[in-house]
Amino acid sequence: MQAEQSLYSTYRRLVTQLMHDQEQLPSLPNITLEIRRALNDDTISISALVGLISRDPGLSALLMKHASSPLYRQVQAPKTLNDVVNQLGLREVGRITMLHSVKSLFTLHSAAHKNLFLEAWERLINKASTSAMLARLVGRISAEHALLASLLSEVGSLTVLSGFKSAEEIPSKALYEKLCREYGKSLGVIVLKKWAVDDEYIEITRETGNWFYTKGNTLQVIDVVNLALHHIAQGRASEDELPSLEELPAWKKLPPPLNEIDDDGTLKLLSSHQHDIQLLAQSLR
Hints:
Blueprint: H1 2-19, H2 30-39, H3 46-53, H4 57-67, H5 81-88, H6 90-104, H7 111-138, H8 143-152, H9 155-160, H10 173-194, H11 199-207, H12 221-234, H13 249-252, H14 268-271, H15 274-284
Protein name: HDOD domain-containing protein
InterPro entries: HDOD, RNase_Y/CdgJ
Domain HDOD: 25-211
């Protein structure tokens, strides 16, 4: 126990140093910055934007896969990037570009780093996919908006890994999760401010997991993210005791029959669409 506490103190020191050194924090790739600037240019043509996106094969592939995902009920899947951009629209292309960037940001120094990252990423995309599907099923909120908000709310968990530079500095899964609980939100807010994202994403990062946070009388993006997180958390044996779904202000904003609950305490709406959620998550791996 004493050895574990000593290790944890060491890891806390590394993460604290990371929080105070902007140079160590991940920066958005240049191609992402170029695409963001292009999307803010009212004169940009679709062909010029497609040319820019084509410079990143990974992003191009993700956009193609995403546009063919269960979020969209297209009679015919898009065949070209032009089709994808026209289908998604510029705003959604920008959100998926950010999502792609997040996964590619973190330098993995060893196999142990990679294992921790992949476990964290799997959890993040399951939560983000659940958020996106819930947004689509409920309506009013863009599925991509919910997807990106959910993912960005956990950027701090990935950033924690940036503090560990060698294989000897890799914490156990339990200690890593403890560090994420202690520092994840603060690091996430610092990183998102560095990236100059919309203030809404920063607010969502601060309030994700705050089960009794409420804003307005209608369903907001933060409500969708928290409902998705609650759904995911119920399936994790190590999760602390959760409030019941009926206690959440977010659930109270759902009209019947969207608010129906299964015997296991989860939203029927999500339980009945698990296959689609997993297909969407697969498109993000």
